[in-house]
Amino acid sequence: MDEERKDGIADMGTEKSAETQKSALPRINFRPFLVCALGAVAGAFFYARIRFGGLVPSDFLILGLLFPILCMPFSKKRILFALSAILLFAGLGAGGMHLYTERYLSGMPAGEYGVEGTVVSVSVGNGYTSVEMNDLTLDGVAVSGKMSASVSSEQIRPGDRIAFSANVRRNPLPNGSDDSYFFVNDLRYGATAAEFTQKERDFHPFLALNRRLFDMLRTDMGGEEADISYALLTGNARMVDEGFMTAVRAGGIAHIFAVSGLHIGILYGAVLLLCRPMKKYAFLPALSVSLAYCALCGFSVSSVRALLMCAALSVNAFLGRKNDLLSSTAFAGTAVLVLLPAQWLSVGFRLSFGACIGLALFSGSLSRLLKKLRVPRFLAQYLSASLSVQLFTFPILLDAFGYFSVWGLLLNLVLVPLLPAAFLTLLVCALCSLVIPPAAAFFLIFPKGLFSALLFLFAFVDFGYVLTGFALGAGGVVWLTSAIFLSERFRLAKSARGILACACVLLFSLSVFVQNSVFGGVVIDGVLGGDGAMILVETPQETVLVLGGEISLSQCNDFLARRTAHVDAAVILSADALSAVNVAAFTGAECIYLKNETATGLNGIPVFFGESFSVGELTFRYESDCRMTLFARGFAADLNFGGEEEIGADLSLKIGDGALKYYLNYDIMVAL
Asked: Comparing 153-157, 173-177, 473-477, which segment has the lowest mean pLDDT?
């Protein structure tokens, strides 16, 4: 009994000692690369917000919250280092973004040129080909940057050198609402060519391999299966049928067709396993193969990020240091932003790094929770990884695409475990087909059957149910900040964590409610620019959509996805009224208003014509086909999409003004 008592006392002493040691630990471990990454992100982010528009007060909130967290426990040395590192790397991020922007604006002006360039990416459809080209010359003068062009041929392949004459345009800088694809990918020029000539190909080994892969898949596999295989291997999904890709995006699994950390990790791990006899040096061939694969994929940001992380983990393992996913992710992010600061505007960059941060923050605690619930070890680890990624990328997905897939979690749970086998099998089959071309059709039988099944699944089952029609606003900042405080990386007592979780839920709910509610007055929210405009006029009772200029259905749906799920009325303010009416018909508007009588051909949707009309407390009066005045709450707003001279009004909105949001009340008018 005495011995048992002694053992019990010893165990109690050990537990108290462990608790004492745990309580003595800092709230969060200090990670220098995390501070550097925060600085680089802040610099690139604020420069883009200031230069391209869209800066709002909540943008400063997350930086103000993260800085003191990273400084805990507070000491003069730690605060000084954190402040110095953030300022230094913020300067590097902002400076790099400025230099990149100025380079993007440099080069030849728009005009008629003889163009020659090397094709690096191809998208074929409906008798024409969209290509991206580098190594450009305009009238024989070499220029930096790349060009996007459309040509009337389906015979162009990556690596081809083509020449044509065309009216070359300069792609604009992004603004607060435009897609930043051109800017991020340095596509400075655009053109459309009716005819082109084929030049002698330059020797680009990886482009040549890409071209051979493209031709082999299309010849020996054929159909949509070939396009899916090419997308899975190279990350270029521009060839895949748009209907299928729309269904895949709505299902939340589009990331399997973008070469990411998952693909690089699969390849790196497979080579590492094969080279196990090399022991600690096995990472060298694994990194070499991964580097070659990144080159084949055009060094996409997600692949470069994954390669940098694999390199960091390998070096740590080689030196016998403990690996830390959060530090490795921060190192890779810092490197990418310092070298390629414009990538911050890429959704792929944010999703790629957000997924890794989610894994680092939550996978461990969720895995332990699931094991306590008697979930098998392998399943617990997999479920925790998938849930961790979904938790942290939720606000990023909603902000970028305007919706969040309800089916995403389930489809990822089912399909992602199959991806390593599918990807490696496809890669081996493709390599064998390239080496032994006569047997290519045989090698590709299994991948073709696999992707035929995937096509059948998405044709047979509708995975398009999504959460949409609202924006998070400051709620996104609350969500991401709460994720840090509630993760295992931030050490809190269980009671404190529970109280904080409740407070975060309430604050998040309140932020989203305020962002998407109209309590009084009128909110005018819209996007102006390019060849058209969309304006949403909301009161507590009515929601009216005004369409001006040339607006596509995809642009309109993308705009509405971030703002509302219901439209009471659509107003057409365009010279091409019939095209705008067709777009309005698919928005779910209960009725449509036009100035002049037009045969719309619509059935089931009331269409009204007239010089003026009212929707609730809102009154609209046409001034011309492309201009109208809105009267609301004692204010007059001039909606001018035709370029005419301004008239006297409290608020004048013209094409080219960028993104906007105004709140009108009886005696105030505030831009938000």
From this structure: 173-177
- pLDDT of res. 111: 92
CB atoms within 10 A of CB 643: 10
Partner residues linked to 134 by β-bridges: 118
Contact 104, 134 (CB under 8 A): no
Residue 97: alpha-carbon gap to chain centroid: 19
Buried b (16+ CB within 10 A) or exposed e, 430-443: beebeeeeeebeeb
Number of domains observed in the structure of the chain = 5
Of 101, 124, 158, the last residue of a domain is 101
DSSP state of 408: H
Same domain, 528 and 623: yes
Q: With bands split at pLDDT 50, 70 and 90, how would you rate the model's confidence at 18?
A: very low
CA dist 160 to 120, 135, 187, 395, 667, Å?
8, 11, 18, 40, 63
Query: Are both 607 and 501 inside the same structural domain?
Result: no
Task: For residue 123, give the CATH number of its domain.
Answer: 2.40.50.140
Element at 660 (helix H, strand E): strand 658-664
Question: How far does CA 445 lie from the centroid of its chain?
Answer: 34
Q: Could you give phi then psi for residue 199, rounded to 5 degrees?
A: -100, 170
Last residue of one domain, picked from the residues 151, 169, 202: 202
Q: Which of 633, 72, 513 is nearest to 650 (CA)?
A: 633
So what's the pLDDT on residue 73? Answer: 67
Q: Are 338 and 92 in contact (CB under 8 A)?
A: yes
What angle is formed at CA 312 by the lines to CA 307 and CA 314, rounded to 5 degrees?
Answer: 90
* pLDDT score at 670: 54
Q: Are residues 44 and 85 in the same domain?
A: yes
Residue 211, in any domain of the structure? no
pLDDT digits (tens, 9 = 90+) for 33-49: 888 888 898 899 889 88
Residues 388 and 483 in one domain: no
CA 349 to each of CA 192, 232, 304, 326, 355: distance values in angstroms, whole numbers, following the listed order: 30, 18, 10, 16, 10
Residue 539 belongs to some domain of the structure: yes
Residue 391 structure tokens: 């938790």
Q: Does residue 304 lie within any of the structural domains?
A: no
Q: How far apart are CA 148 and CA 171, in angstroms?
A: 9
For 612, phi and psi rounded to 5 degrees? -150, 160
Q: Indicate the burial class of 492 (C-beta count within 10 angstroms; 0-12, 13-18, 19 or more).
A: middle
DSSP sequence for 42-97:
HHHHHHHHHHHS---TTHHHHHHHHHHHHHPSP-HHHHHHHHHHHHHHHHHHHHHH
Structure tokens at 627: 């201009």
User: Looking at residue 655, which CATH number applies to its domain?
Assistant: 3.60.15.10
pLDDT band at 556 (very low <50, low <70, confident <90, very high): confident
Range of the domain at 509: 474-515
Q: For the CA atoms of 210, 215, 216, 218, what is the dihedral angle to 10 degrees?
A: 120
3-state SS string over 320-342? CCCCCHHHHHHHHHHHHHHHCHH
Both structure tokens of 481: 């900040």
- Residue 614, H or E segment: strand 612-615
d(CA 360, CA 474): 24
The tokens describing 158, both together, are 């990556």
Identify the sign of the CA torsion 38, 44, 50, 53. negative
Place of tokens 């949409």: 468
